[in-house]
Amino acid sequence: MANTITAVPRDHFINDLAGVTQNGSPAWLGALREKGKQSFVATEFPHTKMEEWRQTNISTVVKTPFRSLTASTDHGLSADSVAAYFYAPDTWTELVFVDGFFDAALSKQNTLPKGVVAGGLNAAIHDSHPAVEKHLNQHVGDRNAYTALNAAFLQDGAFVYVPKKVVVETPIHLVFVSSTAAKDAAAHIRNLIVLEESAQANIVVSYRNAASNATYLNNVVDEVVVGANANLHWYKLVEEGAGGNHLNTLAVAQSRDSRFRGFSFSLEGAVIRNQICLALEGPGAECSLEGLYLNDGERLIDNALTITHKAPNCQSRIGYKGILDDKSKSVFTGFVHVHQEAQQTDSDQLSQNLLLSDHATIDTKPQLEIYADDVKCTHGATVGSPPEEVIFYFRSRGIDEKTARGMLTYAFADDVAGEVEIDEVSKRLDRWVYEKYSPKF
Amino acid sequence: MLEIKNLKASVDGNPILNGIDFSVKAGEVHAIMGPNGSGKSTLASVLAGNEAYEVSEESSIEFLGEDLLDMPAEERARLGMFLAFQYPVEIKGITNSYFLKAAVNEIRQSRGMDELDQMDFNELLKEKMDQINVDLAFADRDVNFGFSGGEKKRNEILQLAVMEPRLAILDETDSGLDIDALRIVSDGVNSLRTPNRAFIVITHYQRLLDHIVPDFVHVIYKGRIVKSGGKELALELEEKGYDWLKETDQATVSA
Ligand SMILES: Nc1ncnc2c1ncn2[C@@H]1O[C@H](COP(=O)(O)OP(=O)(O)O)[C@@H](O)[C@H]1O
Ligand SMILES: [Mg+2]
């Protein structure tokens, strides 16, 4: 399977691999990277003739010859500048990653329960934390050329480990900052999150931009393992710079009776693709994927969700909302795959989109593949703008059309934001929505 | 305060109102009756400024000395026009309280008054809710969302009370209400009658006019006022039914 798009540069990626220090890495990691490299060599970059990418044209990313960052940079970020990205540094653990590399000095560590690890993945590898070798790259598989690259360049990112029955009350915040050193570069970021049986945690993941309008790529792979009866709330906020591209694959593996609630907020960035591959592997597991994307300008936002029901009596929910303005392009796919043994599956999905411009487009589709016979699967999608009679109702109460549309947009977004159980996060979202669509009030 | 002359309105070239004349003075209550499809709601919509209807060049409407026809709906509302809709829309995600505060402050702003802050507004809202006897829980519910038919009508009256318009048009606010709900709604309206506020009460049924007693009754049929009179006209209509109109209409045609 040679690369058929000859115009696309890719050798620089191979060349940059030389910068990845193999020294001091365990042998299994060297093998893992080598496998990633081989897979990259054998895999085409995404293009619109591939079914999965048919509506998602990321050629602006593919054609940019990004350097790969293989060591922490001389980023020049101060503790003060980074503090602006923290939510609650007095109580939360706020871990800072600059261009993908953990920066302990900039981070805020607060006391965590015994046995909990929250820090850099590279450090965990060198400490030989048993969960790392056990889980790293075991859950994501080869999804595409970028996930392969991510494995080939695998060095750092976040590692969070919560032992059996341990409850982490205060949120752990992973703050990924792109610095000016990221200009024209790709950061291959790998995050591994492991919750053992009956563990519980809240993780907030932010992508923030300190690179002004620079073009850069965050190529992120998250692997999340939710053990039996464990419970994880995951909040991801993409606030990249105007030139910041964000390609992410989040792989979630859920054991029996586990709960995963994942929020995804795509607020700013050039090309944003959030792929989620979630597997319900044990009976009684439940997941809920909720999201809000604010798309405008000529940006592209793609949310590609796949939930695989592999065991009986599992529940999955998808609820995404998009606000689509200008000439933006959005793609939403909710693929639910129900294996034959996954009887009593209960699954629903809803994709709701508010169109603010006639030139914005959305391709939204559910895809169901069901091999079990006793299942309940529902899906729905809406795309539209407020009906004229609703606008007239506002006007008849003295509220002009512009304000009415602002209020309605705010209300539409608030529906998802209102579900967020962490005040700091919901306030942040409120600010985004308010500033983008501010009604007069 | 309201002067309607030769009002003709159409949708997509289909005439609905065919020349309506009448005027309303401060403090008066006018009832407009007529069978379904005669143009009552259209009249109300045109007065409120719904641009879905094309109004003829020959028509004129003056409200509080201003020419209404070129005025956008929101400005009419700020001037003191209020329409209680026959079918109020549901607005998910926006609470009554938030919505009404926005409305009240738009109106205050247009009149050069200070905006009400949350505390002052809450006080106003509570006072109005007491006055027209609606449940305090209304404040935090989304506008009409999931409301029963009767609740929607009461919510329209609550908005009326809060917005304190000069002219209130009630479009079939009584339809579908049981007698208790009707009493609450009409007590609410009666409590809002003042010497400088006028009402146009559109109804299909005479029953409402036992509770809100009008000064004048107009009967509209096929887009025209075919009869005007005092409150006794409603009773006459009740007795004879709308068929009587249709007969007279035919009589006029054949004459
Ligand atoms: N927006 C509209 N588009 C098309 N026809 C309309 C519209 N509004 C009203 N009509 C028509 O005008 C006539 C009068 O309607 P309406 O004013 O609602 O009557 P009423 O309120 O007296 O029952 C009806 O035949 C109705 O179908
Ligand atoms: Mg009507």
Can you describe this structure?
The complex is a heterodimer of chains A (441) and B (255). Chain A is α/β, with parallel strands linked by helices. Chain A folds into 2 domains: 11-281, no CATH class; 387-441, no CATH class. Helix content of chain A is 20%, strand content 38%. Chain A has helices spanning 11-16, 27-41, 59-62, 79-83, 121-126, 130-135, 145-152, 388-395, 401-417, 423-437, and strands at residues 67-68, 93-98, 101-102, 117-120, 158-162, 172-178, 185-195, 200-209, 216-226, 231-239, 244-254, 259-268, 271-280, 286-295, 300-309, 315-324, 329-338, 345-355, 361-370, 375-384. In chain A, strands 1, 4, 5, 7, 9, 11, 13, 15, 17 and 19 form a 10-stranded mixed sheet that branches. Chain A has a 10-stranded mixed sheet with strand order 3-2-6-8-10-12-14-16-18-20, with helices on one face. In chain A, 51% of the residues are buried. Chain B is of the alpha/beta class. Chain B has a domain at 2-90 and 166-254: P-loop containing nucleotide triphosphate hydrolases (Rossmann fold, 3-Layer(aba) Sandwich), CATH 3.40.50. Chain B contains 9 helices and 11 strands. In chain B, the strands form 2 sheets. Chain B has a 6-stranded mixed sheet, with helices on both faces. In chain B, strands 1, 2, 4, 5 and 6 form a 5-stranded antiparallel sheet that branches. In chain B, a hairpin with a 2-residue loop joins strand 5 and strand 6. The longest helix of chain B is centred in the middle third of the chain and has 15 residues, at 96-110. Chain B is globular. In chain B, 43% of the residues are buried. Adenosine-5'-diphosphate is lined by residues 11, 16, 34, 36-42, 52 of chain B. Residues 40-41, 86, 171-172 of chain B line the site of magnesium ion.
